[in-house]
Amino acid sequence: MEIILAKSAGFCFGVDRALKKVYDGLGNEPIYTYGPIIHNTQVVEELASKGVKVIHDLSELGHLPHGKVVIRSHGISKNEQDLISSSGFGMIEATCPYVKTIHKCVEKASKKGHHIIIVGNKNHPEVTGIKGWCQQPVYIIEDITQIDEIPFDSNIVYEVVAQTTFNLGLYQEILIRLQKLNFHVIINETICKATQERQKEALEIAKNVDVMLVIGSKHSSNTIKLYEICKEQCEHTYHIESIEEFELKVLNGHSVIGITAGASTPKKLIKEVISNVRNAE
Ligand code: F3S
What's the ipTM? Predict the structure, then answer.
């Protein structure tokens, strides 16, 4: 059996950096992460064993001992940032610099009076964070049909940004459609290069394998997108969180197995999958 592992599988720069900041911050003061630092239970549990607590609402700070709040790589809204600053708690800013660039972009565009189109999942924390830096009307869309919900007005300039992990091909289709409909758009290339490379590599691998395994949390949007991209190319594509949930017998009769993983998947999980797949031969 041949295994083709994507070079880009596993932690991206932003996730790696955020995790490092949490470990560097460990000391005498309590550390709170605003939401789980990454979509991986094992890592979150390991941090919990070192005293790092996950909070889900900033109102919790009112009854917690003073410490530092970690802003994870997804980033947060301006309101939330102001709330933390005024709470008396310290802040460990681990927003991915690529996400921070989008915050600055929409903030600047708002000052010019431009309306904002965010192409991404409206419930994703990165997108709600970006929305929170806009001071003009915002439209959040994730497919071509939702363009109909954006009011057309030739006097309005729309500044378009994409969630960093959005599917590049679909973003391009949406941009072409907006231009065809004569929307006055300013396009910003905000899809993270790491995501683009990961998606491109996954697509190429999926085209040439019998079975494709995509490792990562079921809550991780970049992993879900990888799965969707691979599934289009390879019928036998499986999204698994770890090897425990995968029936190795599925591999019977197949000779080329592709493996990729989302940006918050630890190397350890990827290695476990590889060694189990190898042993299944
Ligand atoms: Fe940042 Fe890209 Fe990762 S935006 S968090 S490096 S997927």
Answer: 0.99
Ligand 1 atom nearest to CA at 164: 4
Q: Evaluate whether 179 touches 185 at the Cβ level (below 8 Å).
A: yes
18 touches ligand 1 (CB under 6 Å)? no
Domain of residue 89 covers 13-95
Closest CA to 165 of 81, 228, 90: 228
Report the C-alpha gap between 185 and 237 in whole angstroms. 37
Number of domain units in the chain: 3
Query: What's the confidence (pLDDT) of residue 25?
Result: 93
Is the domain of 182 the same as that of 144? Answer: yes
- Which atom of ligand 1 is found nearest the CA of 98? 4
- 232 flagged as catalytic: no
| CA distance linking residue 186 with residue 42, whole number of Å | 41
From the candidates 29, 126, 149, 189, which is the catalytic residue?
A: 126
Residue 251 binned pLDDT confidence (cut-offs 50, 70, 90): very high
CA 119, 258, 226: angle at the middle one, nearest 5? 10
Question: Pocket of ligand 1, candidates 39, 98, 221: which has the most ligand atoms within 8 Å of its Cβ, to mutate?
Answer: 98
